[in-house]
Amino acid sequence: MNAPDRFELFVLAEGEKKITEKVVSGMSNCSDFILLKEDHTLGNLLSAYLKMAPHVMMAAYKIGHPNVPEVLLRVQTDGSITPREALVTVCKQLVAMYGQLGREFQKELALRQYADQGEHAGGAGGAPGGGPSGQNGF
Amino acid sequence: MDYDPMVMDDAEALGPVVKISQADSVRVKYELSNSDIAFANSLRRVMLAEIPTIAIDLVEIEENSSVLADEFIAHRLGLIPLNAEGVENLLYARECDCDGCCEHCSVKLMLHAKCTGDENMHVFARDLVPVGERVNQVLGTPVFSDAEGLGPLILKLRPGQEVKLECIAKKGIAKEHAKWAPSAAIGFEYDPHNKLRHIDLWYETDAKAEWPPSEYASWEEPPQEGEPFDYDAVPNRFYFNVESAGSLPPDTIVSEGIKVLQQKLAGLIHELAEGEGDGMNGDYNGPRSPEYGTGADGFGGYTTPFGNGGNQSSWGGAGGTTPYGTTPYGAGQSNWS
């Protein structure tokens, strides 16, 4: 009856911002980033790569409650860059890395299909499962 | 710089490497190497739960004299895989301007079956027929992966029984309901010899003799006899086995997963850069653009979120507020390449 809509797990409510920065007053060069409607997918990814990034002293994330789709990401830098800059750099790097992964995957897939065609030349071409095969040129 | 620059420079220089060992219409198996567990796991999570597909979400039952309850049938209908090709052109019903649902945000399917013979009748997904306007000719059609082309069995009817119902299929992601999952299963494994000791194998007398070796055991060096444990070792080769449920081909699941993840990250960059003014954004596009350029035209079919106008929203949501919102990416590319 009073259960929240399930899409509230990933759709921002009216006026909510995806990410907000809160400067942590007790620590130098340190900020908390609150990511709304996100989960471990981004939390773990960003904290892991922030830890590897230059000038970042500390990075960690938590999800306060498993039912609440909010990620708190704390980043402390050595002062030569701001935590926000560090986070943006890491995000950009990750976008580029996933982009490269996508290209690598497509390249490999084309090679694989080429090799498979060679192997099964003249054979019973149709793979089992007529449904999805049509869309893909398999 | 008081960190080890090798960690990052290596990743930057080489980046993730993919090796596909099997690819067909139901599954793609690949090895992702020179990578990080967080990187691989985020991709796995996104492929499982956040790729948009289409599934039956509303069922209006006009006649049901079968032995199954209405809600039981409705649940079964929801789980039937529907072809999701071109689902990116479909709107989410909650974002559509229409009242309830329309052809821009849904696909209507009809099912009408009556057992008129004297043998029990089987009703299959084949009997679900899309009606009305659609975004394209295949979106929302039930997927048949059996040899006869019948699709999943929905229910059985005794002589004289009848079902007549109307289904509304909508776009969604598996985070909302598992029926929207494009993947049946995603195999994810690393370290087949358990050198890192991330798993603690149960055994009667000898774990090595009792546990079958992994499919990928021959891909990696087995540990040497008496080899000391390496405390600094981290996993960097991951074996994926992406199995499609039928709505999207397996390789599309991978490339869509990458796209969704890039859009998530791009959304963060966009919001973070907004507060900083245009300086950040400009800084970004300068050095990075060549990579996006190749991303968009490096290979056919696949586009990164930066590829074309359709996906521009992830960057230029604010429209003309940044210099990049006003210039279409396509035009910019010619300068960079």
Automatic annotation (TrEMBL), chain A:
Listed GO biological process terms: transcription by RNA polymerase II
Subcellular location: Nucleus
GO MF, one example: protein dimerization activity
GO CC aspect terms: RNA polymerase II, core complex
PROSITE patterns recorded: RNA_POL_L_13KD
Residues annotated as domain DNA-directed RNA polymerase RBP11-like dimerisation: 31-102
CDD domains per the UniProt record, alphabetical: RNAP_II_RPB11
Gene3D superfamilies in UniProt: RNA polymerase, RBP11-like subunit
Keywords associated with the record: DNA-directed RNA polymerase, Nucleus, Transcription
Main location: nucleus
UniProt xrefs under PANTHER family: DNA-DIRECTED RNA POLYMERASE I,II,III, DNA-DIRECTED RNA POLYMERASE II SUBUNIT RPB11
Family membership: Belongs to the archaeal Rpo11/eukaryotic RPB11/RPC19 RNA polymerase subunit family.
Protein name: DNA-directed RNA polymerase RBP11-like dimerisation domain-containing protein
TrEMBL record, chain B:
Assembly and interaction partners: Component of the RNA polymerase II (Pol II) complex consisting of 12 subunits.
A Pfam family that the UniProt record links to this protein: RNA_pol_L
Family statement drawn from the similarity comment of this UniProt entry: Belongs to the archaeal Rpo3/eukaryotic RPB3 RNA polymerase subunit family.
Superkingdom to which the source organism belongs: Eukaryota
Subcellular location as annotated: Nucleus
Keyword set includes Transcription: yes
InterPro entries documented for this protein: DNA-dir_RNA_pol_30-40kDasu_CS, DNA-dir_RNA_pol_insert, DNA-dir_RNA_pol_RpoA/D/Rpb3, RBP11-like, RNAP_Rpo3/Rpb3/RPAC1, RNApol_insert_sf, Rpo3/RPB3_RNA_Pol_subunit
Annotated ranges, domain DNA-directed RNA polymerase RpoA/D/Rpb3-type: 27-271
Family matches, as PROSITE patterns: RNA_POL_D_30KD
Name under which the protein is recorded: DNA-directed RNA polymerase II subunit RPB3
Entry-linked SMART domains: RPOLD (SM00662)
Region of interest called Disordered, as start-end residue ranges on this chain: 296-337
Any GO molecular function: DNA binding
GO cellular component: RNA polymerase II, core complex
GO BP terms: transcription by RNA polymerase II
Keywords: DNA-directed RNA polymerase, Nucleus, Transcription
Native species: Staphylotrichum longicolle
Biased composition (Low complexity): 323-337
